[in-house]
């Protein structure tokens, strides 16, 4: 399966975000750190929700390792990651358990007033704590609030996540989840 320039750039950005150790390789430690980072966003003491986020990152790591670690060294290089993201993580078989499970748990964790919506403040706080600058998350919020209600519904959030991972459309609002993409880079 060939990655489009749009998906390639998004997955390249994702690799950099996931490389918590900054060593140019993805490891189990990187995915545990991402799981902990996401789980820490849940300030409600909902241990099941925090465990769901950690579990989804663990599932994602197992898919990467099983299908992407071509040399069997227990680490995933950037080229391996780009290939496995396109061929396996974004497949129907794995996408729900490895990606949408995180989105659903995030929504539960961040919807601090339990109204089924993410306010602009909730959304910007989430991404700021995940290392995405507020200037990017504020712009993303504007794009992802498709109905102009001033909030992102659970469905709008899932749509954005799905677009980020699956869409080849350069103009898809979901592409802005972790910052602007630049296909020319």
TrEMBL record:
Source organism: Actinomadura logoneensis
Record Pfam families: EF-hand_5, EF-hand_7
Gene3D superfamilies the record matches: EF-hand
Classification of source organism: Bacteria, Bacillati, Actinomycetota, Actinomycetes, Streptosporangiales
SUPFAM superfamilies reported in the protein's UniProt record: EF-hand
UniProt name for this protein: Calcium-binding protein
Keyword annotations: Calcium, Repeat
Example of a GO MF term: calcium ion binding
The organism's place on the tree of life at top rank: Bacteria
InterPro entries registered for this protein in UniProt: Centrin_CML-like, EF-hand-dom_pair, EF_Hand_1_Ca_BS, EF_hand_dom
Alphabetical list of PANTHER family matching this protein: CALCIUM BINDING PROTEIN
Segments forming domain EF-hand: 56-91, 132-167
